[in-house]
Amino acid sequence: MAEKLRLVDLVHARLDRFLDDRQAHLDSVADELGVFVDAGRELLAGGKRFRALFAYWGWQAVAGASKPDDLLATLDEHPDIDAIIDVAAAVEIFQGAALVHDDIMDNSDTRRGKPAAHRRFESMHREREWAGSASVYGMSGALLLGDLLLGWSDELLDDGLAQLGDRRAARAARDEFRTMRTEVMLGQYLDIYEEVAWREADEREQLPRAHRVVTYKSAKYSIEAPLALGALMAGGTEEQVSALRAFGLPLGVAFQLRDDLLGVFGDPEVTGKPAGDDLREGKRTVIIALARAGLPVGPRALIDELLGDPDLTPHQVATLQATIRDSGAVETVESIIARSVAEAVAALEDAPISRAATRELIGLADTVTRRQS
Q1: Suppose 61 and one of 17, 165, 314, 353 were both cysteines; which one would form an S-S bond, judging by CB atoms 3.0 to 4.6 Å apart?
Q2: d(CA 106, CA 110)
Q3: Superfamily of domain 167-373
Q4: pTM over 0.85
Q5: Residue 334 in contact with residue 243, Cβ under 8 Å?
Q6: Is residue 237 left, alpha or beta, with left meaning phi > 0 and alpha meaning psi from -120 to 50?
Q7: Within 13 Å and on the Cβ side, how many CA atoms surround 35?
Q8: How confident is the model at residue 46, as a pLDDT?
């Protein structure tokens, strides 16, 4: 636990230093550009650092595997620790970029209980009574913030990988990051595509298509890719990296399915987003596919009629929630989550990785799938 807390503190401190450096650059161009660092700092201050933790423990799983008595390299003693902290922080910045763009696409008002980036820029426009459309300015400013964060994540990644003595490991990690970045973008597109084109798919295809979104929009980049990134930085063998992928992908699916349940039933005071936010956004998630498959024609038509209406009333949200519960979809999703976690944990049995890292990863599996926000 102490190692985990210290890692989170180190990643946070690295992000602060990085943003301080970028603040100096932006200030040298124009005073008005400070808003990008302010918005980025506020966004990156939140979150649970799950991706950073998985990158670190992927690294430790390999770096600690050859130690006598399975002793881990601590945060103080390993020559590559600064490199892994930089890369873990880069993954967090990448996540920030994805959240900014995701909130624009979903037309979300809030993120972690605060205004989403595009709403922040929009409010700035309104408060100062600038010319033109506040909404257009808000989206444009947030798009640029997301792009800037995306570029910055690449810069910090390069800073970290440049510190590795093993250049082959650095190249392999760089390739993993590139793949992760591409697949997230593809998953994001599939997500918005399913919201509008779902009627074109055969009913039997609704669930596999929803699962495809889960895999590429979230599961791979939330857990599998950070694990592989850390393992590759440590020079992991094909067997070691494959074992971590076999753990990370099913756990990533369980992680996103928990997120989907929270998007429909989560407490706004805990999640920082309005109740039923995914219902207003029209997310064609696994839980929606399962609910539709388990309902007769009438209730299924009700879901299709109301899902995606941004002006859903609290009563309509409650009606949709009750309809989904009645379908049995919640129990089915909980069952899938449990099976996915069991599959993930089983993949670590006899894996050629650090035993201490294995214990930490099993603990993280429980944390990320039982969370309330």
Answers
A1: 353
A2: 11
A3: Farnesyl Diphosphate Synthase (1.10.600.10)
A4: yes
A5: no
A6: beta
A7: 17
A8: 83
